[in-house]
Amino acid sequence: MGGDLFWKKSYDPDLMDINPAQWETTCPEICRRTFLNYPDKIALAFMGVHITYAQLDRYANQFANMLLSLGLKKGAVVGINLPNIPEYVIAWLGTLRAGCVVSGVSPLLSSEELEYQLKDSQAKVLVTLDALFEKKLAPIASHLTDLKAIVATSVGGFLPGIKRILGKLLGKIPKGKVTPLDGKTVYLFNKVVQPGVFSTEYPNIDLTPDDIAYLQYTGGTTGVPKGAMLSHRNAVVDLLIFQAWLGMEEGKGVGLTGFPFFHIAGVFTNANFIFLGWTQILIPNPRDTDHICKELDRYKPAMMANVPPFYMLLAANPRFKTLDHSKLEVCVSAAAPYPEEAQRKFEAIVGTGKILEGYGMTETSPLTIFNPMKGPRKTGTIGLPLLNTDVRLIEPATGKEVEVGQPGEICIKGPHVMVGYFNRPEETRQAIDADGYMHTGDVAIQDQDGYLRLVDRTKDMINIGGFKVFSRKVEDVLNRHPAVNISAIIGSNNPERSGSELVKAYVILNPGYLVTGDMEVLKKAIIDFARERLAPYEVPKILEIRKELPLTNVGKIDKKVLRKEVS
């Protein structure tokens, strides 16, 4: 790293870069002390079922030894195609202990997308739901020549029998038939962790910090999904940096996350809770805000972690407003920008200063920028570059660094930057420059104190006759209108000016907002509101009110879908 890291003046007192010697270890080793120190503490809380650290330790060893019994060698890829249920955590930990590579696979993928990822990753084992086995995997299984085994479970696999039966009868638990597959071993998850089937001994695998821990699929800055190879060193570095940044006390806390574990934000949050020895409340469906409210009321966690749209959905639930949030210390927000007005609404419920917004990406393991835990949190910013992290903002067209206060693409350098994209050396070279900086595709402005404010994705910037429109700025203004809950801005081709675009806005109204009169009158009022606060070229020319917006697997507004609608 080099240059003037001027943002360090804004760090919390006593924070300093971590000695690299501390991260010369592996993910299983960095977490072993948790299982030694807190065997009787609840590790996982799921729908009223509790799993202690001693039980999690034993189950993970059984899963690891099952993988080894299949003849898997160090570096073999295990796809985990589950929602946030106990089996995900067990499979994640067991895979790492076996020296294998965890690859999160979204349960929302189509059969075609599932086939692509499993083939591209050369996955040897897939852990999946019975419903997904029948509907998505079985029809394509014969095409998956690398796949040796499947481990199937149910969303209610750890629930008491009566709850499982009722859940399936009422349609709350999806179900499917698990059948033999030619040339492949098929296990039921509950058999794998039964006593006496597989050894409960900790596997003796010679893992190194350079070995790959995760193969996480991402669109990257452009293109089709690619597997980002994250080493054990990458993962441990970011874990240690974030815990030093937060300064959370081990062994005592309770945490809740709606980040899906198949996404890097979810698996990283899970790893943090395990490293801390906290109780983790598992949320299989983060859109079920009634269930989340019940869990918040029961366990009263000290920390929540989620994407902004789900915090916004939670804030719109009347029950959430009635809960006691006095024990809630911090609400981590990442993976997408959190509109300032929405933050104020949320903190009016949970308490001022509890939102901690940050930034990361799959290719950086993931976190690189965060607001201080103790020092000033600047609403609307993603915070300061983290410890052991160098950041440059560049002009994408020229590669030159921009001045403080000017927009530029965020480029990240540090020990958490990925090894590269799996079997894609050319795309790796395009993403990571000769100086070791990862080009993120996100545009930000950095102020004199070092805080960064996201203004757009490079691909989301709108060109209005040569003027750049940053969608984040327009969305922040629209979200301040009393009728607006969530907004999204895209560029639509201008039929009257070749090469230019029009600003189009999509809006979801606040649940409690009473529309009186013609909806067109409300649309005009929202546009007039924007006109008073934006430059003429930034004002939306088209506004569409919807009941919902398309979301990605992790809960971000999916602008690719919106752009396809107008292309």
CATH architecture of the largest domain: 3-Layer(aba) Sandwich
- Counted by DSSP, the helix tally is 16
Q: Can you tell me the CATH class of the largest domain?
A: Alpha Beta
Portion of residues within helices: 25-40%
The total domain count is 3
Structural class computed from helices and strand pairing: alpha/beta
- Our estimate of the beta-strand percent is 15-25%
- Rg, Å, rounded: 24 Å
Q: What is the third-level CATH name, the topology of the largest domain?
A: Rossmann fold
What overall form do the CA principal axes indicate? globular
Please give the alpha-carbon distance between the first and last residues. 42 Å
Could you list the spans in which at least 5 consecutive residues all have pLDDT below 50?
none
Strand arrangement in the largest pleated sheet: 2-1-11-10-12-13-14-15-16
Q: By CATH's scheme, which homologous superfamily of the largest domain applies?
A: ANL, N-terminal domain
Mean pLDDT: 93
Q: What is the subunit organization of this protein? A: single chain
Please count the beta strands (DSSP E, at least 2 residues each). Answer: 26
Q: How would you portray this structure in words?
A:
The structure is a single chain. With 567 residues, the chain is α/β, with parallel strands linked by helices. It has three domains: 235 residues, Rossmann fold, CATH 3.40.50.12780; 159 residues, Rossmann fold (3-Layer(aba) Sandwich), CATH 3.40.50; 105 residues, GMP Synthetase, Chain A, domain 3 (2-Layer Sandwich), CATH 3.30.300.30. 29% of the residues lie in helices and 23% in strands. The chain contains 16 helices and 26 strands. Strands 2-1-11-10-12-13-14-15-16 form a nine-stranded mixed β-sheet, sandwiched between helices. A five-stranded parallel β-sheet has the order 4-3-5-6-7. Strand 1 and strand 2 form a beta hairpin. Helix 2 packs across helix 3. The two termini are 42 Å apart. The model has no long low-confidence stretch (mean pLDDT 93).
